[in-house]
């Protein structure tokens, strides 16, 4: 981790680009904190629109319309194919009405994607660190929100409670979990590139902090997503020789000091706040019961005597029935229309509501994204793309378990992945090969 990148005088533009991207990529937790906990601004989508508008303003470069940077061509073509198709459905095959919020989602998605094409490639070094600190700070705001919320008690799902009338009670724990995942994954990536002892301790604490937030959220999709991400790492990188060398390195003086400090800190924390460990174990028991309920609901197999129907999973099971019904009707070709049915399974909904072409565009986009992610997991090109690859693996579960195919919760992260993932960066070239750095053209498409 390079703290000098936070020097505003020397790195102002890259910092403002990065803050703007981070606000779009992971802005909802901070929006809920400012709007609902602090009570600043209207408790409606108006505040969200103001927040995202500020983010886009921060991303505007001085070279706007003069220099465009090349994204992942395959991904952007498939993404634009799906987004333009859904926009056409929104205008011409819409039985639900043209809500202002839907218009805003399209505007911010296309605006964010367009501005990313004008952000320089070198922002990647600053961006990964800003994403980490942004999510870490947001975790702190979550703790403040829970402490000051009179309706929240230990054992409940951790989330910022919404202030507007008729809102979902208890807030949105999936947003909380996603922020914890971002903190955890970005800290792990930065930890592998950091040698300073105090910074390594801070990153290690951040990993535990992020893991604790994920556990408190009780979001099953995040648990499974992290399992897939860590499974991919061990599949492509773990070797028995790494285990033996890791044990040997642990006995080096510098690493011994690091381990001792961690153990002392953990021991002090548990001695002072021992009830927190019991609280986390209690959350694990709740999660285990929820998994048993999902298995019983989906398969009818009762693996524990306490297993009961999970109504969230039941909704997805019934959604699969809607999908099968579509396959045997004329809707298989054109679909039923924009947001006509809510299946809570984005892959299936892309077909039910948008027909065969919507399904092909959306599924192909995620398939090719997965191919680039696997390649990045194997290569570890640079910290930003490594983080984006593991983050996609962690959110891939949502394609089968929650949301809609055009949700900005999908497309804001997707936009960043389209811009930076699968691009041949100069720093990916082996060090023993000296390649001259090309001079930028005043108006060009730069291949990165």
UniProtKB/TrEMBL annotation:
The chain crosses the membrane at residues 14-34, 46-65, 71-92, 99-120, 126-147, 197-217, 223-241, 253-271, 351-372, 384-402, 408-426. Signal peptide: none annotated. Keywords: Membrane, Transmembrane, Transmembrane helix. This is O-antigen polymerase. The lineage of its organism: Bacteria, Pseudomonadati, Bacteroidota, Cytophagia, Cytophagales.
């Amino acid at each position: 981790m390079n703290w000098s990148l936070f020097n505003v005088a020397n790195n102002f533009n890259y910092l403002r680009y990065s803050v703007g991207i981070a606000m779009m990529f992971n802005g909802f937790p901070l929006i809920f904190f400012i709007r609902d906990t602090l009570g600043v601004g209207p408790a409606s989508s108006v505040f969200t629109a103001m927040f995202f508008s500020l983010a886009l303003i921060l991303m505007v470069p001085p070279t706007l319309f003069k220099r465009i940077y090349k994204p992942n061509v395959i991904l952007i073509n498939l993404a634009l194919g799906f987004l333009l198709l859904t926009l056409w459905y929104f205008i011409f095959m819409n039985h639900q009405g043209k809500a202002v919020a839907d218009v805003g989602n399209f505007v911010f998605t296309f605006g964010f994607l367009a501005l990313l094409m004008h952000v320089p490639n070198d922002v990647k070094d600053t961006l990964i660190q800003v994403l980490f600190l942004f999510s870490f700070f947001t975790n702190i705001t979550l703790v403040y929100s829970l402490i000051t919320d009179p309706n929240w008690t230990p054992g409940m799902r951790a989330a910022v409670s919404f202030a507007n009338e008729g809102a979902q009670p208890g807030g949105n724990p999936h947003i909380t979990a996603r922020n914890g995942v971002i903190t955890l994954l970005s800290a792990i990536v930065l930890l592998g590139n950091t040698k300073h002892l105090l910074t390594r301790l801070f990153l290690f604490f951040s990993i535990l902090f992020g893991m604790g937030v994920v556990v408190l959220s009780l979001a099953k999709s995040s648990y499974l997503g992290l399992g897939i991400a860590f499974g991919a790492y061990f599949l492509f990188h773990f070797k028995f020789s790494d285990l033996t060398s890791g044990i040997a390195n642990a006995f080096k003086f510098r690493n011994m000091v690091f381990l001792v400090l961690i153990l002392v800190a953990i021991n002090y924390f548990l001695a002072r706040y021992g009830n927190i460990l019991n609280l986390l174990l209690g959350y694990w028991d709740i999660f285990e019961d929820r998994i048993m309920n999902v298995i019983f609901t989906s398969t009818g197999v009762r693996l524990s005597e306490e297993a009961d129907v999970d109504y969230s999973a039941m909704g997805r099971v019934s959604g699969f029935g809607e999908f099968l019904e579509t396959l045997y009707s004329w809707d298989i070709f054109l679909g039923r229309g924009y947001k006509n049915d809510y299946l809570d399974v984005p892959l299936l909904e892309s077909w039910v509501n948008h027909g065969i072409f919507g399904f092909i565009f959306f599924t192909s986009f995620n398939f090719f994204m997965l191919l680039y992610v696997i390649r990045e997991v194997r290569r570890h090109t640079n910290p930003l793309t490594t983080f984006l690859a593991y983050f996609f693996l962690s959110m891939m579960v949502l394609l089968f378990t929650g949301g809609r195919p055009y949700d900005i919760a999908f497309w804001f992260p997707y936009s960043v992945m389209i811009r930076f993932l699968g691009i041949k960066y100069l720093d990916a070239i082996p060090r023993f090969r000296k390649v001259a750095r090309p001079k930028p053209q005043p108006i060009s498409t730069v291949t990165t």
